[in-house]
Design brief:
The chain has 82 residues and is of the alpha/beta class. Helices cover 39% and strands 26% of the residues. The chain has one domain.
Length: 82
Amino acid sequence: MNDSAHILLLDPLHGGSHAAWSQGVQDGLTQQGHRVELKTFPANHWKWRMQGAAAIWAHELQDTPPPDVLLTTDMCDLAQLK
């Protein structure tokens, strides 16, 4: 039985503490045998990143199989990912 999960980790403001958190989560989950796909945007223009990043990712991800788990920082508008 394979308990490995495909985890999509979204970090729209990848810098400072957000980058440290994302990298720590990615490292920990990878060590547990999960496949973690980290998608990021640079840590600038935080208001735009908070409002627009999810809409861009929703477009990019529309033709890909859904992950087993979706994980994001608090800077991502989940309503835009639908």
